[in-house]
Known about the structure:
Layout: E1 7-12, E2 22-26, E3 29-33, E4 39-43, E5 46-53, E6 55-58, E7 65-67, E8 72-78, E9 83-89, E10 94-98, H1 106-117, H2 119-123, E11 127-128, H3 133-142, H4 148-155, E12 162-163, E13 167-168, H5 169-181, H6 187-194, E14 197-198, H7 214-222, H8 225-231, H9 235-252, H10 255-269, H11 272-277, H12 279-295, H13 298-301, H14 314-328, H15 341-361, H16 365-380
Parallel strand pairs: 1-9, 4-11, 13-14
Antiparallel strand pairs: 1-4, 2-3, 2-5, 5-8, 6-7, 8-12, 9-10
Helix pairs in contact: 5-6, 9-10, 9-12, 10-14, 12-15
Domain AAR2 N-terminal: 19-154
Family: Belongs to the AAR2 family.
Protein name: A1 cistron-splicing factor Aar2p
Amino acid sequence: xxxxxxxxxxxEDIAFNGPGEFLFGIDLQFFTVKNKFSxxxxxxxxxxxxxxxxxxxxxxxxGESVVSNLRYGxxxxxxEGDILVIKWDPENESxxxxxxxxxxxxxxxxxxxxxxSDLGSKxxxxxxxxxxxxxxxxxxxxxxxxxxxxxxxxxxxxxLELNTITASKQENDxxxxxxxxxxxxxxxxxxxxxxxxINYTPITFKLNKPFTSVEEVTSNYLxxxxxxxxxxxxREFLLAELQVSFIHYVVFGNYCSMVQWLxxxxxxxxxxxxxxxxxxxxxxxxxxxxxxxxxxxxxYLVGGDLQNQCSIDLEVYCEIMENYMxxxxxxxxxxxxxxLKLQGMIKQVWEEILDLQKREFGLDFNALKAEKDREIEDxxxxxIVAYSQE
Length: 390
């Protein structure tokens, strides 16, 4: 066949023993397939995440395989006409990419050529990339700040295969320090160094500026705008990290990514000076947050088990949202024009976020705030003491 439209993922030699299903996905789209799966076609240009879970041990008495709780995947960027060839490695039970431009191994060259020659017969068996509202959301709000340069900073190697238990660099460093204190012989530390890791920016809420007065220490603790300026001089990187951490969390159920996503939301919610002065940035952050919450599985936030690493601590989440409530109450304006138009748009998207949380998760932050305000009023009111006059 001729050059296929858009981009294509061509999968070679996928097979496994016994009955069962693969759980495949691209971006935030998921497909359950049998062992006959040839790939994905009509993929729009841009940045994407390919991910999968393999069948594992057979359930007792059913004779059926179950999908592993571990998910794997990797990022890739494609443009019009690209064909990404992926070959199933049954020995390691994982996929490996076969590259056209960097081929020096004759066997790999033959693998790539053979795969391309089989494209015509497999193309009709491929799954179409869904051309729906989810695609627009992915392109406009969920991944629009992510590019290969950002991924190289966060992953060291854009070819890195991530999974559910991939740790952050900060986690690995803490573990290596603990091993050092226990006089580890170095073998475990070397093993950690060889493992893939995610280079999220460490966020430390108790950190303060050096050489500051007592008043500044208090001010800097309560407002973290200075922290973002120092640790994220490039705000585009902060937005990208906010998107990457959420995607890793939702797709892989990756614990360190959940922690980073919540920490980023928290440090932003404590940066009133920045958000109130940089309205365009604030509008972008809220647009991303609204899109992310629309894709967050309900059981991750409410009704889940805290023993499950995917479950968010609801108390922590509510604290973050209450910070935003306090911050945005100063923008009590109607939608308007001129200089206040953007301020009105920010108010509108924040109200849409509140409505989404109430509708999808049963979390009514307006009612919660009203209840807390009443409690404060009762505490500040006069105390009536009953007495008897003799």
